[in-house]
Amino acid sequence: MITHAAHEMASAMQAGEITSVELTQAHLDRISAVDSQVHAFLHVDTEGALSQAKSVDDARARGEKVGPLAGVPLALKDVMVQKGIPTTAGSKILEGWRPPYDATVVSKMKSAGIVILGKTNMDEFAMGSSTENSAYGPTHNPWDLTRIPGGSGGGSSASLAAFQAPLAIGTDTGGSIRQPAAVTGTVGVKPTYGGVSRYGLIAFSSSLDQAGPCARTVLDAALLHEVIAGHDIHDATSIDAPVPQVVQAARSGDVKGMKIGVVKELNGDGYQAGVRSRFEESLELLAKAGAEIVEVSCPNFEYALAAYYLIAPSECSSNLARFDAMRYGIRVGDEDGASAESVMNLTREVGFGREVKRRIILGTYALSSGYFDAYYGSAQKVRTLIMQDFNSAFGKADVLVSPTCPTTAFKIGEKANDPLAMYLNDIATIPVNMAGIGGMSLPCGLAPEDGLPVGFQVMAPAMQDQRMYSVGAALEASLLSQWGAPLLSQIPALAGAK
Amino acid sequence: MSLTYEDVIAKYEPVLGLEVHVELNTHSKMFCGCSTIFGGEPNTQTCPVCLGMPGALPVVNEKAIESSILIGLALNCSIAPFSRFSRKNYFYPDMPKNFQISQYDEPICVNGYLDVEIDTDEGIKKFRVEIERVHMEEDTGKSLHVGGATGRIHGADYSLLDYNRAGIPLVEIVTKIVPGTGKYAPEVAKAYVAELRDILRSLGVSDVRMEQGSLRCDANVSLRLIGAETLGTRSETKNVNSLRSVERAVRGEMIRHAELLNKGERVVQETRHFQEESGLTRSGRSKEQAEDYRYFPEPDLVPVAPDAAWIETLRATLPEQPTLRRKRLQTEWSVPDKEMAAMINADALDIVEATVKLGADPTRARGWWIGESSRFAKEQGITIADLSISPTDVAQIVALVANGELTDKLARQVVEGVIAGEGAPASVIESRGLKVVSDESALMAAIERAIAAQPETAEKIRNGHIPAAGALIGAVMKETKGQADAARVRELLLGHLGQPTT
Fold it and tell me: Are B125 and B190 within one domain?
């Protein structure tokens, strides 16, 4: 059952074929069996998960109406706070902290009866593309344990590919949902900025961060999307408008007459051959399904990465200032006579990892007086230009598409000492965050040269998230009929697994 | 050799700049739902948002926006159609996020003014203080540094943090530079803060209690040679906790600056702390190296864009400006200047007006509040508004005196009883037995007993020696324990002894 899609698990529970407790226990067993190899989880909440599962089973037994995903287990990225459950955001500085409140996404999932198995590994404070920046050690890609599972949400995507959970929550600031989805052969969606509440999401870059669903099928992602989306009075940037009809779109998967724009700048040089060929084949499948493929140009995308690495570090330098040992988290150097300042300094010195420090320093510099206009100010202008590029492209096409990443999963350690090479991995995902629109990655096959998954990215205008689901579902259906089985059926078995 | 104030103003022109921080009296904090009530147990009025917990987000308190707009309108400002919050980044343990959410380059109100009047030897003088901006921000928590010499974080043995105040909405009202006040600079500064306080109170947006810190004034002072164009270096004096201190601080800083300048030394640009006891300031944080706050627009909040119609609705609700109101009430109640000043000083205007509105005679109402009540308040070290006597009580007492049921003397006892918490006037009268003895036959009996006791005195009165009546009236009053109306006793006595009663 653990290899099934979430909506199939839900149907089985509804039909009385399995209980949530049984299903949850099966996933907990799987985690015990394989997580020593994958290291997708930082914390497993066995007791909490089973008790949530039991209450869903009880509700069902009493004949109460439960949500479409009630009783289905889920893996939660450790950047989301969950009351009473250790939450670290992959950082040593928060070791041992148990949040006193639930993120809005968490409370929505709890009321929907979703069973939270535990917290997944991630690059520290969501800064990274490989999960190697976790203070608690890297996560391994279940397709090849020597490779990265993507990042920052590598734990969430790996847990899906390793059948440790059928659903997961990710957060995406520059690609942290989509890139891990791409390199693990799973589905990940970054909703429109403001579509899902950020309340309780430990901020990296507030104007770019967005939580979203991760799953193994487009429909599962849509079902989870519907649970977590919607206006929240606790988040001033959340959009007060009806949630896009994503489930309906995922169920129908209709692209007839839809114009699909291929972004010229997000393909070609720098993209692995196998990535390009799988992407091209997918375009043909979409054309066969009735879509019209057009080419669009977004000339300002070439500045997106540079601008991103000014805006995100600037915001993070301020967002991470609160980690000062005064109220929560670890405290270092608090000996007799030590000043508050020295405790703050020592704690931050010990508590933050290299990449986090690098970005805090970058951001502090970019916001300094005398540099603000040249750096932060210019970056905001680039952001406006990127939005204009998207606007004009969406004038020609209903959705835009590209490969999610230039390459398949690289080796653990390969880019660890080359931040720029690491940053380039997000070149195709970052423009979406800069413009605040929606983006999805879904698997479109394995690259012939390395046999690793390739991701196909779909981008839709703000609050038109349903369009991504239409295209994603259509492509998924075409690919499935070609392959005869989901891509993940080809994943090598993990040692020790039943 | 120390300079006199006259020496200073003979040579230098002071230039003022005033920054007033006002805690708004909204029920909840600026960015979360926590209570703003003053004086709670430390850290009981906090939540993930105002503690800066990871993941928590701010949401703007709409009431705070409304109050800020009202303040801007009352200060003749333009209300910005679009304003933003920024982050002011600096590390300090009492600031939970290590940045303060504050308006920076796009404040909600700009370009206003406030006219103030001061009473001088040369008559009433009017000054216009121009307002540069009114902006919103959140307050910090409070630190208590224990041990060490200075009471500051450096050198303290340990520090206690109370985040109840963290996130309380603050409005900062910043003037443009105020030149041209000459020797009146200290009085103008005081009058400005006083007028501002009255306006804020009339708007009902703040408790404006300087002693509790809900209104805090930073006084910037610089000197330049009379006739000079260039501004001198300023100092910024904080911890100015009363109106009187505002005046003293400005005066003190003027003298301190002049002494330095006369010696050829330079004034250091710095924060100084006012010492209530000495009236002097002591050096605080130097501002020579401008701190870099790395301001940038707060990404967790959306811009504030108040609807023009809403602003007009608010404008229509603006109360009468305090100066105009004072003038109107003085005329309506025919109050002499000096007594008007006393009433204002005692902060009694609102309460007297409330009493008058309940039907009391203005002079009488004023008399009770400024006289008796004020005295009791002073004894208890509180304001008259905090006494347990209300305008309703005073209005009742005034009415009882007017219709003869109480004498002034009895009324004073009633006031005392009400203030002592013995209940409403009626129950004090009842329990203390303070009713006027108006039973005339009883009075006549007492008069006859007095005459019988002092026949010679009665004889003198019969012979036309009226002043002698005092002794007999006194005896009657004594017998009735002061509960008789002395004037009536006099009438009855004189009539009884065949003398004219007027």
Answer: yes
Q: Is residue B310 part of a domain?
A: no
CA distance B297 to chain A (A): 10
| Domain, as residue range, for B448 | 440-496
Cis peptide bond N-terminal to A152, omega within 30: yes
pLDDT at B347: 78
| Residues in A touching B294 (Cβ below 8 Å) | 317-318, 364, 367-369, 372
Nearest to A81 among B55, B97, B296 (CB): B55
Q: Are residues B445 and B422 part of one domain?
A: no
| Cα Rg of chain A (Å, integer) | 21
Q: For position A392, what pLDDT does the model report?
A: 98
Confidence of residue B150 (pLDDT cuts 50, 70, 90): low
Q: Is the ipTM of this complex over 0.90?
A: yes
Enter the CATH code of domain A6-302+383-490. 3.90.1300.10
Mean pLDDT of A16-28: 98
**pLDDT beyond 60 at B1:** no
Instruction: Tell if the CB–CB gap between B55 and A326 is shorter than 8 Å.
Output: no
> Whole-angstrom Cα distance, residue A96 to residue A29?
25
Cβ–Cβ < 8 Å for B130, B77:
no
- Chain B residues with CB inside 8 Å of A326's CB? 93, 96, 161
Q: Would the CA dihedral through B47, B52, B54, B59 be positive or negative?
A: positive
* Mean pLDDT within B175-198: 95
Judge whether B86 and B297 are in contact, CB under 8 Å.
Answer: yes
- What is residue B290's predicted lDDT score, i.e. its pLDDT? 67
Closest CA to B139 of B21, B53, B19: B21
Containing B16, the helix (H) or strand (E) segment is strand B12-23
For residue B303, being part of any structural domain is answered with: no
In a domain, B164, yes or no: yes
Q: Is B194 at the interface with chain A, CB within 8 A?
A: no
Q: Cβ of B54 and A97 within 8 Å?
A: yes
**CA–CA distance from B158 to each of A326, A330, B147, B153, B433 (Å)?**
12, 18, 7, 8, 59
- Cα gap B468→B461, rounded to integer Å: 6
Which residue bears the tokens 């065949």?
A: B498
What tens digit of pLDDT does each residue of B417-467 get?
999 889 899 888 888 877 777 677 788 888 888 888 888 888 888 888 888
Structure tokens at B207: 């408790």
Residue A2 backbone phi and psi in degrees, to 5? -65, -15
Q: Which of A80, A235, A322 lies at the smallest CB-CB distance from B97?
A: A322
- Judge if B56 and B198 occupy the same domain: yes
CB within 8 Å: B91 and A364: no
Out of A81, A237, A376, closest to residue B296 by CB: A376
Q: Is the pLDDT of residue B147 over 60?
A: yes
Distance from CA of A212 to the nearest CA of B (A): 16
Last residue of a domain, one of B386, B407, B432: B432
Tokens 């046999």, residue located: A451
Residue B51 touches chain A, beta carbons under 8 Å: yes
Chain Cα centroid distance, residue A429 = 11
Global pTM?
A: 0.87
Provide the token pair at A381. Answer: 């202008």
Give the Cα separation of A50 and A27 in Å (integer). Answer: 11
CATH number, domain of B481, equals 1.10.10
Q: Which of A100, A199, A324 is opposite residue B57, by nearest beta carbon? A: A199
Q: Which chain A residues are Cβ-neighbours of B292 within 8 angstroms?
A: 368-369
* Partners of A188 in the β-ladder: A214, A441
Whether A322 sits inside 8 A of B55 (CB atoms) is no
pLDDT of residue A18 exceeding 90 = yes
- Which residue is closest to B100 within chain A, CA to CA? A318
Cβ of residue B158 closer than 8 Å to a chain A Cβ: no
CB B264 within 8 A of CB B229: no
- Mean residue pLDDT across chain A: 96
